[in-house]
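Section: Multi-chain targets

For targets with more than one molecule, the full set of components is provided together so that the structure can be written out for the assembly as a whole rather than chain by chain. Components appear in the order listed by the source. The example entry contains two components.
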Amino acid sequence: MNPVMTALRAGWSRGLIELRQSFTNGAELFSHFLWPALMVATMFFIRDMSFGSTGLLLGTLALPSILGMNAATGMISMSQQLTADREDGTLLRAKATPHGMPAYLIGKVISVSGGLLADLVIFLVPGMLIVEGLRIGPGSWPTLAWVLALGLVATLPLGAVLGSAFPSARAQGLIQLPFLGVIGISGIFYPLTALPEWLQWIAQIFPIYWMGLGMRSALLPNSAVAVEIGESWRHLETAGVLGAWAVLGLLVAPMVLRRMARGESGSTMAARRERALQRVG
Amino acid sequence: MTMSKQVVLDVDGLRMRYGSVDVLHDVTFQIRHGEVLALLGPNGAGKTTTIEILEGFRTRSAGRVEVLGADPAHGDERWRARVGVVLQSWRDHGKWRVRELLAHLGTYYAAYTTPDIERPWDPDELIAAVGLTGHADKKIKTLSGGQRRRLDVAIGLVGRPELLFLDEPTASFDPQARHEFHELVRRLAGTQETTVLLTTHDLDEAEKLADRILVLNGGRIVADGTAAELARRIAGEDEVRWLRGGRRFTEKTADSTKFARDLFARYGEEVQELEVHRASLEQTYLALVHQAERTTR
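Its structure, encoded as tokens over all components, is:
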């Protein structure tokens, strides 16, 4: 078996094992259901509210948007898991194993995106029962699929970069704040056109808005386009912005990861652990 | 015979400097195939730095280092597959089960099977070899400290390494666990012909496990030899005590065995209550470290 195949196969089986583990222990199983359940509850409460005079229901607008947002949270999981794996020595173990690093990363991408897909389904199924006015036709799934796939390629490498750049669990907590901020201005729970124009521009820099927009274009009737910027689903722009983030992430991530991996050793790990213990004690 | 054995690890003039502080000065040594070498020294002597350079995890400042014929700073995946690493503290893969992890990590090595060495080690055999048979299906985070350490060694061995690095392998072990661990390492060196480099600050451990001991202090090698050689070289002489004709005798000698033989040849049954006190390696070691500290200051 050649080296590339070894890494691919090991990464694949690694990803599947981790995925299975995350659905067979209580704590993680709980977290798989918690976030989707909160989102379903949110939608339940806003399902009858309408947006301005358009006659569109907020719940209907929010369901695909939340789907897009949830897909973007893969970035946070990626970043957190990388940090945790660095702290407990999983990464160093990978470094001590032939083809360990590529296999580790492949495995991580598989387990994070697999867990994400499951979370999306956990959210989507009850959501579709609560919310009225979606338009799910034969064209919906291909659009949903490409937005999701491109969205993951745009966000997961960024997550890996953040995970490498911010080595401590505490720094990881800090990353979540700006992430929540970006969610707040990305037109997830309320259409972006209701925000001041300068905020709209900022929101359009980040992938979350575009993932929400793409999902809305897949699941909403055409009339709903009226609340979007320029009254268009802007598929080209969606592909453009997400594609740009993907290229950036795929260029930067290997460099940052390689640099991080080079610095890993038993003593750096021990030193980190020491610092972590001092904070606790 | 030892001389004909191949050099597996060759370090020449190794230096390491952090900022303006030198932590390793001109470290030079070799390890031959099948040898168990202990790098002994007090905390902060440079043991971990040395072993991390040899493992390829740290870039040295100067000197020549060759491990299994390659520079570890540029070791490729094939080289990596021939080396086993057991670090001081692992907490990784807590959610995995013992057999699951060993079977998984084994697949990385399958491509590196050679006519002489079949890789990887069968997970069940390996689990038995490190004495974890009853725990094969346990989650790793539920293992006790000693069990976890044995698993770490198993992971280090899963690719049937030609060279195994053990960094402070028994720190925080209770005496029973330590004893079992020593048996395991001796078995490995004996039956698998694995070359082992271990670091320890515990003299007793070095004496029990190693064919040869290298004492590292303040970033320099201050002694190199078998336990007996080190004891002779530094502490010098054994002490022989005996009773003859109601009188007590005490004599210092470099060769206590020969001395006793001569004693019996001369006095026969008159010699009573013979005691031979070998020069204690512990005193030797303390003397060495003390001496080295005095000269560097």
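The interface with chain A takes residues 48-49, 52, 55, 57-58, 77-78, 80-81, 85, 87-96, 100, 104-105, 107-112, 155, 159, 167 of chain B (CB under 8 Å).
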